[in-house]
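Late entry, written up from scratch paper. The run itself happened at the end of the previous shift, but nothing got recorded in the book at the time, so transcribing now.
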Amino acid sequence: MPNLRVRPKGTHGLVTEVTPESAGWSYVGFALHRLDVGETVAAETGEREVCLALVSGRANLTIDGEDFGAIGGRMSPFDGPPWAAYAPAGSRYAVTALTPLELAVCSAPGGGDHPARLIPPGAHPQVVRGKGSNTRYVTNIMPEDDGAADALLVVEVITPGGNTSSYPPHKHDQDNLPHESYLEETYYHRLNPPQGYAFQRIYTDDRSLDETAVVEDGDVVMAPKGYHPVATLHGYDNYYLNVMAGPKRVWKFHNEPAHAWLFTGVGAPKATTSAS
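Output as recorded:
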């Protein structure tokens, strides 16, 4: 299995790329481009559908010759809701930077008849998930209930410093609906301030996979299977962009039994005292 943490290569151009071949899986692709003003990323989607997510910056967008005009605006992923667009399989897109631009290209197998479209801020409201030190702020970009893609699921999460997210631990590595869906997943991490770091653990019930990544600004973590919680440190907020895809466009997860009581409050373990 490849290293589950992918470090950026440089600070300009195509700095990170995860393909099904490099990841050793079947569905999710992720690429991160950093562009200067006037530079363009253009490509054909082929047999894959694509979500173009503007992590930061402003750009002109065309898909199959249709001019969607200038989109984007936030200069940091911590500063306001996202802009994104959907490019179906068999199309061609071009994104030209109007400001310094950080562009995520999220992909999965496509082939349906979904049209190209913008996904502007407010298309899906930000929601608060969790409570206390498990609070995080979630903005869906392409959720399962939008019915507008074949496989892609894309979401942004901001976790305040000192909090956990993707927690209590859950997994989605079994094609066993209605109980659980199989979804590969990437996490693209940013830290604010950027010199910070966070932790992400990826592990299975039998611990045949059990890795903990020290996550720095710009890293990608792959979750091919197992549980994958994230923990931030005091003073450093964590942003991540999740890309998920599998044989069915359904997010149905399974909670790790040992920690399920954190959801329900039932069966909480009793505190123990040490012998004197």
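The radius of gyration is 19 Å.
(Scratch paper discarded after transcription.)
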